[in-house]
């Protein structure tokens, strides 16, 4: 039994979702995306030395990014303070994970209240690498979202299927379960402090980016799911990011998709000029 399962007190069954047309298809012509700002996250994962992090921060500070984009980078815990001190506005900072409850006797962990105390506004939760390598299950991810939100953090909650799940026809069930766990633990008001990142596992770090059709199909599905299970208003405002092998070359096409409200970038976020280019994706020609 995983940690998340052990902590489950009560599971609420959500109705099955119809996988039909896009919720946004019926919306008026002027679409407000999320809170109105395209969102770019840079997930630095377990990378960086003092020297490389300093260089990356310098490159970002020297870059030109549009006001219309909200940008958040996620260094390792040990680099958070250094980056926070040196990275300039408009860049914001995220942690890559946090503990599921109040801090205490949890060796090696970092709590949400510590991050909040440090002035770190965002946290990434449920990344597929944590789900697979650290055995974080859907319920634990939902509980982490709930606790982080309760401590005043904003959350980038990740979902996504493996290639095997996609090819075996289980993709929608996997996404349903991941979304349901997040939704169970997120109050209506707290959705304003949440973005969802759709990161198909097969596209992460592989150079195999989802096709525009694949990305749009899932993003539309996620928005429809949220409309049906949370509220239409939340669905309209929610920013749904795509992650998985986003780079300078493919970002413009993906940025133009109806239901793509931003990106969560891994490898390309470690190169300042590339990341700056991706931050300008909406202004590039696809
Ligand atoms: O996992 C990712 C972002 O969280 C994506 O990683 P890559 O951009 O390296 O594929």
What are the SSEs and their pairings?
Blueprint: H1 3-7, E1 38-43, H2 50-62, E2 69-74, H3 77-86, E3 91-95, H4 112-117, E4 122-125, H5 128-133, H6 138-150, E5 154-159, H7 163-167, H8 171-184, E6 194-198, H9 212-229, H10 232-237, E7 240-243, H11 251-255, E8 262-265, H12 272-279
Parallel strand pairs: 1-2, 1-8, 2-3, 3-4, 4-5, 5-6, 6-7, 7-8
The site of 1,3-dihydroxyacetonephosphate (13P) has 14 residues, from strand 8.
Would you mind describing this structure in some detail?
- Belongs to the triosephosphate isomerase family.
- One of its GO terms (molecular function) is triose-phosphate isomerase activity.
- With 286 residues, the protein is of the alpha/beta class.
- The protein has one domain (34-96, 109-283): Alpha-Beta Barrel (TIM Barrel).
- Helices cover 38% and strands 14% of the residues.
- It has helices at 3-7, 50-62, 77-86, 112-117, 128-133, 138-150, 163-167, 171-184, 212-229, 232-237, 251-255, 272-279; strands spanning 38-43, 69-74, 91-95, 122-125, 154-159, 194-198, 240-243, 262-265.
- It has an eight-stranded parallel beta barrel with strand order 1-2-3-4-5-6-7-8, surrounded by five helices.
- The longest helix is centred in the C-terminal third of the chain and has 18 residues, at 212-229.
- The chain binds 1,3-dihydroxyacetonephosphate (13P).
- 1,3-dihydroxyacetonephosphate is lined by residues 43, 127, 199, 204-205, 243-246, 264-268.
């Amino acid at each position: 039994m995983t940690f998340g399962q052990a902590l489950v007190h009560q599971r609420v069954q959500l109705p099955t979702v119809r996988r039909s047309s896009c919720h946004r298809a019926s919306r008026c012509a002027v679409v407000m995306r999320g809170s109105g700002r395209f969102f770019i996250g840079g997930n630095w994962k377990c990378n960086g030395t003092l020297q490389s992090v300093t260089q990356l921060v310098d490159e970002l500070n020297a870059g030109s990014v549009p006001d219309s984009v909200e940008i958040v980078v996620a260094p390792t815990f040990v680099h958070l303070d250094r980056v926070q001190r040196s990275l300039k506005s408009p860049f914001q900072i995220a942690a890559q994970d946090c503990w599921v409850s109040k801090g205490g006797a949890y060796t090696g962990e970092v709590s949400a209240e510590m991050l909040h105390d440090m002035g770190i506004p965002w946290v990434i939760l449920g990344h597929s690498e944590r789900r697979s390598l650290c055995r974080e299950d859907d319920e634990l991810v939902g509980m982490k979202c709930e606790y982080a939100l309760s401590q005043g953090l904003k959350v980038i909650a990740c979902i996504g299927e493996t290639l095997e799940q996609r090819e075996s026809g289980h993709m929608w069930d996997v996404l349903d379960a991941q979304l349901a766990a997040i939704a169970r633990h997120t109050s209506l008001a707290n959705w304003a402090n949440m973005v969802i990142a759709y990161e198909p596992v097969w596209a992460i770090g592989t150079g195999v980016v989802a096709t525009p059709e694949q990305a749009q199909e899932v993003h539309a599905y996620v928005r429809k799911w949220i409309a049906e299970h949370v509220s239409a208003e939340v669905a309209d405002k929610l920013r749904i990011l795509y992650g998985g092998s986003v780079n300078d070359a493919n970002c413009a096409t993906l940025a133009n998709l109806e239901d793509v409200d931003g990106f969560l970038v891994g490898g390309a976020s470690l190169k300042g000029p590339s990341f700056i280019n991706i931050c300008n994706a909406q202004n590039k020609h696809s």
